[in-house]
User: Fold Glycosyltransferase involved in cell wall biosynthesis from Actinomycetospora cinnamomea.
Amino acid sequence: MTIHHPDDVVVTPPRPPERVPASAPVPRDVVAGELHKFSDGGLPAGPVSLIVPTKNEAANIAFVLEQVPPCVDEIVLVDGHSTDATIVTARSARPDIRVVHQEGTGKGDALRAGFLAAKGDIVVMIDADGSMAPQEIPHYLYFLGNGYDFVKGSRFMGGGGSRDITWLRRTGNRALLGMVNHLHHVLLTDLCYGYVAFHRRYLDYLDLSRPGFEVETQLTLSALRAGLRIAEVPSWEMPRRHGVSNLKTFRDGSRVLRTVLRDVDSGMSGRVLQGLRRQLHATRSDELAPQVRSEVAT
Ligand SMILES: Nc1nc2c(ncn2[C@@H]2O[C@H](COP(=O)(O)OP(=O)(O)OP(=O)(O)O)[C@@H](O)[C@H]2O)c(=O)[nH]1
Ligand SMILES: [Mg+2]
Assistant:
């Protein structure tokens, strides 16, 4: 049974935002109006919200929260129906933490709830398993404070690295990254990594309709589509401290692939990709068909 604290917020899953068409980049006056807001040290002057999607991380959460630097103004823990002492442990480490209970499942669903609950002008997302160092947060803020709109961590640029990633995941990540770079004419160095920060005013431009881990890729793709100025900062990924991963390489890898292919505009993608997309969509329609039929019958 979940005991809700009086301060807790239960967030009803929002309707997925309208997809931002490629032809509708962020209006420049939205950006220009905010450029004066930076403090002298190069960090953005607005409040910073840290979003921590958390599912059964009682053994890790205190380690993460204790390292959060003072530049963070609020911490929003989004609990994914944890059955261990995650929330109690988080509250004893940081009594000021806000807890949001997601109603659906998956990291994508959790982030959506967390972003909506965030009160800060700047939103940073970080994992709760101890694999990402909160001490890196000021690096992200520095770029947001100096003209960039969306900042993502990279394990594969100078200064970054991973002690966690397996050969298989590294290969998959590289292949998917190659597709994204080719399709969007960019030179990103990492794709499937969930250490990201952005100005909250761009939330409406970020497509967050995917429920699972593929949301990380979807965030980057929609930032590219919206014409946001993207910076990458080096990041070190460590193995999770305790517990087991929620990610399944093949299941989640194929979801990321679908997300990348779905994002491709007709005309940009070429015949092979279009064929692949059609096949994937056909498979999905087949999966959905019985459900649709039973809804019609009732
Ligand atoms: N709220 C919520 N959090 C989740 C859910 N699934 C995963 N998380 C959290 O999302 C973060 C990343 O999940 P992990 O299981 O570490 O996945 P990963 O980092 O991609 O995989 P590893 O490298 O193997 O650790 C962790 O903080 C999890 O607790 C979920 O359904 N709901
Ligand atoms: Mg992890």
In short: The first helix runs from residue 28 to 32.
